UniProtKB/TrEMBL annotation:
<keyword id="KW-0378">Hydrolase</keyword>
<dbReference type="Pfam" id="PF02190">
    <property type="entry name" value="LON_substr_bdg"/>
</dbReference>
<dbReference type="GO" id="GO:0008233">
    <property type="term" value="F:peptidase activity"/>
</dbReference>
<keyword id="KW-0645">Protease</keyword>
<protein>
    <submittedName>
        <fullName>ATP-dependent protease</fullName>
    </submittedName>
</protein>
<dbReference type="InterPro" id="IPR015947">
    <property type="entry name" value="PUA-like_sf"/>
</dbReference>
<dbReference type="InterPro" id="IPR003111">
    <property type="entry name" value="Lon_prtase_N"/>
</dbReference>
<feature type="domain" description="Lon N-terminal">
    <location>
        <begin position="11"/>
        <end position="205"/>
    </location>
</feature>
<dbReference type="InterPro" id="IPR046336">
    <property type="entry name" value="Lon_prtase_N_sf"/>
</dbReference>
<dbReference type="GO" id="GO:0006508">
    <property type="term" value="P:proteolysis"/>
</dbReference>
Length: 215
């Protein structure tokens, strides 16, 4: 697909709390539920091979409204392998974010929705840059955070990674709350996404909880 004009109007949806996909990033997924095995089978028959990742909303009992966030990200199935018991390991490569318009009725066991791509034309371009990025200061803060939560990583690779790859990979991999992941997805620029990560990390290091995060 060369541009947003090539993207389909209707997408199969894969709602998964805490799973974040961003444009030009890759997300590995384990597919085993029958409805999503059916979805994958149907998707592999299409030219675009796109799946829309979207986060469910935490809806209080008795509240009306959409059970999904309005913004998701579509990924193209670029790798898959089947296990002996019929499950699949797949990789989605992020193509573009989308706005959810409404669910589409049909006979599939999985969800489908009509989507709008027009707000995210920037996603089809090349990698973003972050002119205000202080890599050294950011990595110092990140080291403190990883020590605090007991994570290890290849720091040499982080030091050498391009800005977008570094920031987007951390957005996807760090154990932030689902609502925080959604905020990272909806960030209008790479700089804004990096600033959001810094805020989340600083708040976590102060011992705060996601419920106390300033809105």
């Amino acid at each position: 697909m060369r541009s947003h004009s090539d993207l389909p109007r209707v997408l199969p949806l894969f709602p998964l709390p805490g799973a974040l996909l961003l444009p030009r990033a890759r997300l590995p997924l384990h597919i085993f539920e029958p409805r999503y095995l059916a979805m994958l089978e149907d998707v592999l028959k299409t030219d675009h091979r796109l799946i829309g990742m979207i986060q469910p909303r935490d809806m209080p009992a008795g509240c009306s409204g959409s059970k999904f966030h309005k913004i998701g990200c579509a990924g193209r199935v670029t790798a898959f392998s089947e296990t002996e018991d019929g499950r699949y390991m797949i990789t989605l490569s992020g193509i573009s974010r989308f706005k959810l318009k409404h669910e589409v009725e049909g006979f599939t066991p999985y969800l489908r929705a009509e989507v709008d791509w027009t707000c995210f034309r920037r996603d089809e371009g090349g990698a973003e840059t972050d002119r205000g990025f202080d890599r050294q200061g950011f990595l110092v803060l990140l080291r403190r955070y990883f020590r605090e939560i007991g994570l290890s990583t290849d720091w040499d690779s982080l030091c050498d990674a391009e800005e977008e790859l570094l920031i987007n990979s951390l957005s996807m991999l760090c154990p932030f709350e689902p609502e925080d992941k959604q905020a990272l997805l909806e960030a209008p620029s790479l700089e804004c996404r990096r600033e959001t990560i810094v805020t989340l990390i600083e708040f976590a290091l102060r011992g705060g909880s996601s419920e106390e995060m300033p809105q």
